DNA sequence: ACGGATAATGAAAACGTGTTCATTGTTTAA
DNA sequence: TTAAACAATGAACACGTTTTCATTATCCGT
């Protein structure tokens, strides 16, 4: 610690950097000035050792490239940075197998909180491995127009963000039906992923309520290429559809391109398409996608709020935040 | 440290986790087994404190959402993870002002190396603030078909990755000219960014050599919306062009959409378009973009190589790696 | 001017590791 | 069998902070 060579004791330096402590103002100013000159910054590793706070937030994703995830990481990083935290990024293996190896690996870095944007890791698993870090969970509850379920029964509770999808899906189906859609297909995301199955459940409920029967199931995995191929199959091998609801926007792009460039069908005249997420690319003129928007800033602010509240009150009961969805109308329905 | 309650001294535990040390195999096995049961992992913060290695690599980007950057971060994170490092992500402010604040902030986390994917921060600045971390620089040297310049004269040298663009640009121009392009426009990236100006310089050289005169300059900033608007301007206010070379793929998408949906021109029949990067989205059927590819895996491997070599030999001379570019032909030229 | 409260200060301990050094136990070479 | 080389081991220290705790300086009300 060079700063004290210039003036006085080390605790004074420590106090100079911690606002709430008591230190004579002029002394603090002097220390900060000298620190500035010497290009000194308190070492977070040492600080973490004694305080038990690393100011690191672990983020686990299967694929940073996916536009939705990259946009979420972007917003999250900005928000965390503003609160004095940093994003520690980890990637799961491509097969989505959330092996304990990655978690133990991550644990070594001692993050204060962990957010897993990966469908097959439950907070129970996270909590089991990371003893100190707080797991934050993104949850898609089953819901109706009346409200949503809180699955408090199945095991211990963890802090979670509830994403309410009923409103957006209801609006989307209404719009498609309004433009004459009768045979509605659902393009799924990754097999058994929470987001995809929740959307499917809600869609089934909404369709049944509106007398539209069951959706035609098309299995995808959130990627463009799979969506493209699955759509071609749906019309070449299967019986087609007059509207497709995709579990995410990138999938919707694959659907649109397959319809237009492979099957020579028109969107929205022949087939209507709706996506989910409202990513940056959705307003690009080639797609101009009508989609169910999850407000990213709102979602990320809620996540950060969860983390901060949990860290300031470690013993509080399970925390909860809720965000809504709504339809953004563009040009792929009518 | 709970592990030693189960058996013996703490140094034994330390050695059990460091393979190169000498410890009786059976003892090591026992310790690892007990550690496993107790869910114990060595604390990296404490380790960093004494060893001076945090195993953190700071990555600074202006915008994680940008497909090219998110793909680079993705590949980099995977590669670093395989080498026992973790990615620490930071975002510059939206105005790209690389204020010292962010650097000091980052310095507190003590990264072992820093890669700044942001055009206006030179390694000199990085090195000035981060005393311990190693700056890695992505450089786009001026080059001709004969080779490329090494600007060794201007100040001290830092480890760098040279991206050679001549080959790809030469192939792109040749292809466009082969299909009859005579009036070639260049859509720039962000003002004075290294990548964009290097591409412009090389393009000018190649065009001059082929008797194509000077490129028509169109100023962009690597984003879709700006590219779209600038292209409309070029044709409505300016005199148009019969080919556009964009500084990046996302910009090329904006050009294509403006041409097709706003100006009612055909690509490639009326106007040819070439991009730069070859991002995931470039093969999407709506664009099917012919573009100059930078091999991402190769590029990232080179970056990781630079970091590892530098950390294992801190006093070695400036390190250098080089990657090539090449044209990927799809459907936007002819 | 006095007693008591409060602010300011530094010494020492603690956080969980890696490293050096000296000691002990074990193998190898003659 | 003996000396020498080597493997295995633990005690003590160091890394750069924050946090008690005890001490001293300063302020306030009367």
UniProtKB/TrEMBL annotation, chains A, B:
<dbReference type="InterPro" id="IPR000843">
    <property type="entry name" value="HTH_LacI"/>
</dbReference>
<dbReference type="InterPro" id="IPR046335">
    <property type="entry name" value="LacI/GalR-like_sensor"/>
</dbReference>
<dbReference type="Pfam" id="PF13377">
    <property type="entry name" value="Peripla_BP_3"/>
</dbReference>
<keyword id="KW-0804">Transcription</keyword>
<dbReference type="InterPro" id="IPR028082">
    <property type="entry name" value="Peripla_BP_I"/>
</dbReference>
<keyword id="KW-0238">DNA-binding</keyword>
<dbReference type="GO" id="GO:0000976">
    <property type="term" value="F:transcription cis-regulatory region binding"/>
</dbReference>
<dbReference type="Pfam" id="PF00356">
    <property type="entry name" value="LacI"/>
</dbReference>
<keyword id="KW-0805">Transcription regulation</keyword>
<protein>
    <submittedName>
        <fullName>Transcriptional regulator</fullName>
    </submittedName>
</protein>
<dbReference type="GO" id="GO:0003700">
    <property type="term" value="F:DNA-binding transcription factor activity"/>
</dbReference>
<feature type="domain" description="HTH lacI-type">
    <location>
        <begin position="1"/>
        <end position="51"/>
    </location>
</feature>
<dbReference type="InterPro" id="IPR010982">
    <property type="entry name" value="Lambda_DNA-bd_dom_sf"/>
</dbReference>
């Amino acid at each position: 610690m060079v700063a004290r060579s210039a003036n006085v004791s080390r605790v004074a330096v420590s106090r100079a950097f911690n606002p709430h402590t008591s230190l004579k103002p002029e002394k603090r100013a002097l220390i900060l000035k000298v620190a500035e000159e010497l290009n000194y910054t308190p070492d977070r590793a040492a600080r973490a050792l004694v305080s038990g706070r690393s100011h690191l937030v672990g983020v686990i994703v299967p694929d940073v490239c996916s536009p939705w995830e990259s946009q979420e990481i972007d917003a999250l990083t900005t928000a965390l940075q503003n609160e004095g935290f940093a994003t520690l990024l980890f990637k799961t293996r491509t097969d989505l197998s959330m092996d304990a190896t990655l978690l133990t690996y991550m644990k070594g870095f001692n993050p204060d909180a962990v957010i897993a944007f990966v469908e097959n890791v439950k907070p129970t698993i996270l909590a089991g491995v990371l003893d100190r870090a707080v797991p934050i969970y993104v949850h898609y509850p089953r819901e109706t127009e009346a409200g949503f379920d809180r699955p408090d029964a199945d095991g211990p509770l963890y802090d979670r963000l509830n994403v309410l999808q009923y409103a957006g899906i209801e609006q989307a189906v209404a719009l498609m039906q309004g433009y004459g859609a009768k045979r509605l297909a659902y393009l799924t995301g990754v097999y058994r992923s929470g987001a995809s199955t929740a959307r499917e459940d809600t869609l089934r409920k909404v369709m049944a309520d509106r007398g539209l029967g069951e959706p035609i199931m098309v299995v995808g995995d959130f990627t463009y290429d799979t969506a493209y191929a699955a759509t071609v199959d749906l019309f070449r091998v299967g019986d087609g559809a007059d509207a497709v609801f995709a579990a995410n926007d990138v999938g919707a792009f694959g659907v649109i391109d397959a319809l237009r460039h492979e099957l020579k069908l028109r969107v929205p005249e022949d087939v209507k398409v709706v996506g989910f997420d409202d990513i940056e690319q959705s307003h690009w003129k080639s797609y101009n996608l009508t989609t169910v928007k999850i407000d990213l800033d709102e979602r990320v602010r809620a996540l950060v709020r969860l983390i901060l509240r949990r860290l300031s009150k470690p013993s509080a009961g399970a925390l909860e935040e809720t965000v809504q969805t709504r339809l953004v109308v563009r040009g792929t329905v009518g």
